[in-house]
Amino acid sequence: MQAVVLAAGEGTRIRPLSASLPKPMLPAADRPLAAHAADAAVRAGADELVFVVGYEADAVREYFGEEYAGIPVEYAVQHEQAGTADAVRAAREHLDGAFAVLNGDNLYDPAGVERLFAAGPSVGAHRVADPTSYGVLSTDGETVTDIVEKPADPPTDLANTGAYVFPAEAREWLDVPASERGEHEITDVLARTIAEHEVTAVEIDRWLDVGRPWELLAANEWKLGELERDVRGSVHENADLRGDVVVEEGASIDAGVVIEGPALVRSGASVGPNAYVRGATLVGEDAHVGHGVEVKNSVLMAGATVGHLSYVGDSVLGRNVNFGAGTTVANLRHDDQPVKLTVKGERVSTDRRKFGVVVGDEAKTGINVALNAGTKLSPGVGIAPGETVTRDR
Ligand code: TTP
């Protein structure tokens, strides 16, 4: 079966991290989000991957190439983000037979995706405490009878995960009219499929929709938590690696370093001397964590450098970010309330007691910069020495 992976979105809510990478290409542990979705599809038996690309499409093409995990890869271009049905419609000429659809920015538990593929036509459902902000499935036994968007009075607690197996005819049902919000929605294609076929609701036990920056931290925590200790890079005899720590070939860990798993130090990265890396942390390719630096529960993307005497907690640092000596991140509010972040102009709770900062690619801080919890720095911005940053810059 072919698996269509939707990866055309920009990810406006995860800005500034999506400034030069589409959201599905942001890293969770050792690979981009979209690769976790693709891996789940391959494990479930997909024999071809079709990526729908648009925003920053080259990043997707470069990563997946023409063959991935032993199966062929095709690309379909969606020129305008006109909705998820429109995205699949862009892939129509590639489709031949029953096909699966997965969101490229969602993490799905792979066993669930296996069951989904085996049960098609099917839709992946995840039980949530408050279904009112999701598409919610009505069922009769395991058969789906209806789907309603964001219902005030949800019929079940089964949220639509955006993972589907459609029958071959659905290829002809993709031209749905625009919804109230002006998008052509795949859920309208699902509604037609429910009307004409028996569609099975398949429970996906673990699922994460990555929309906002803190959800990327959650994705990283999930996928780092699945890694097992594996040390291939060079590690000084006085370094102490505790638990599930992965040090890739070509990474180096210097004297006096303590790393607590789950943690991943990618190829070309260097840590130390005398640094403390706590779980769950990703130190990306060619990133550097230097002397006297503590990093905790953070994503340092490729080339990010935190060189001297700094603290980084519960934060996401984009590619080639450079923190000057003594840069300190606050990740806890004095009133102990959840940290808030501005998402598309609105202050939104991260629902996290601890959350630090989100830093766009190539941003730099001078020495002794203090960054307040819940602040964002734009790509390329420079913060002068000694500044205290309490608002997004
Ligand atoms: P969303 O997360 O709803 O949209 P987005 O990725 O653009 O993010 P934001 O809302 O922050 O701007 O998209 C869900 C999935 O569908 C995601 O994998 C991107 C994909 N998608 C497309 O490929 N084409 C589209 O037209 C839309 C709306 C989404």
From TrEMBL:
Transmembrane segments: none annotated. Residues 3-221 form the Nucleotidyl transferase domain. Its EC number is 2.3.1.157, 2.7.7.23. CDD domains: LbH_G1P_TT_C_like (cd05636), NTP_transferase (cd04181). Pathway: Nucleotide-sugar biosynthesis; UDP-N-acetyl-alpha-D-glucosamine biosynthesis; N-acetyl-alpha-D-glucosamine 1-phosphate from alpha-D-glucosamine 6-phosphate (route II): step 2/2; Nucleotide-sugar biosynthesis; UDP-N-acetyl-alpha-D-glucosamine biosynthesis; UDP-N-acetyl-alpha-D-glucosamine from N-acetyl-alpha-D-glucosamine 1-phosphate: step 1/1. It catalyses: N-acetyl-alpha-D-glucosamine 1-phosphate + UTP + H(+) = UDP-N-acetyl-alpha-D-glucosamine + diphosphate; alpha-D-glucosamine 1-phosphate + acetyl-CoA = N-acetyl-alpha-D-glucosamine 1-phosphate + CoA + H(+). GO terms for molecular function: glucosamine-1-phosphate N-acetyltransferase activity; UDP-N-acetylglucosamine diphosphorylase activity. InterPro entries: Bifunctiontional_GlmU_arc-type, GlmU-like, GMPPB_C, NTP_transferase_dom, Nucleotide-diphossugar_trans, Trimer_LpxA-like_sf. It comes from the Archaea. The keyword Acyltransferase applies. Residues 259-351 form the Mannose-1-phosphate guanyltransferase C-terminal domain. Keywords: Acyltransferase, Multifunctional enzyme, Nucleotidyltransferase, Transferase. In the C-terminal section; belongs to the transferase hexapeptide repeat family. PANTHER family: N-ACETYLMURAMATE ALPHA-1-PHOSPHATE URIDYLYLTRANSFERASE, NUCLEOTIDYL TRANSFERASE. This is Bifunctional protein GlmU. It comes from Halorussus gelatinilyticus.
